[in-house]
Fold this protein.
Amino acid sequence: MKKSDIRVELFEWAQALVSAILIFVFIMVFAVRIIGVEGTSMEPTLQNQDRMLISKLFYKPSNGDVIMFTKHGLRLAGHDDRDYPLVKRVIGIAGDTVDINFSTGDVFVNGRLIEEPYVKDPTRKQYDVNFPLTIPEGYVFVMGDNRNVSHDSRSSDIGLLDNRYILGKVYMRLFPFNKIGFIS
C-alpha cells in the first residue's frame, strides 16, 4: 500500500469518526437526553438513581405522561438554588379542571375520576393550592406517583408548570439494567 493510499484511508476514517461524533452530539442535544431520578416521589414507577431516556422532539404534553422539567428559582428543602430536574406525571393540561378529594384520595379531571394504577398510595397529602383548579393555556398540572411524599403542583412552590420548563417526556428506563423498559 502506498503512502498516499494510507493517508487517504486515514482521512476517510477521521471523517467518519468526526461525522459519527457530530451526529451523536446532535441527537443528545436536540433529540434525546439521559437523565437520572433523584428521590422517591415517583415510586413505584421510578426509583431513586434510575437513569431515563427523555425527549422533547415534537412533544406536546398529554395527561398521564411522565415528564422531566426544571423550575427556575425553585427552592426545596435539602437542595440548593440550582435548576435541577424533577420528574412528575402530567395530571391535567390546558383547559382541564383538576379536583382532589383528600379524604378519599380520589383525583378527578373534568369531573371524571381518573384511573391511576401507577400510584403508590391514595392522594391524601394537601398543600396550599385550592381545588378545583382549571389549567390555563401553556401550563400543566403535575403530581408524583408517590403522592404522600411528592412535592408537586399541589404546592404553590411548584404550582402549575409552564410548558417551557419541560425538558421532555420520559420514554424509558435505561438503568438499572434489570429494569430496562418503557415507562407508562
The mean pLDDT is 88.
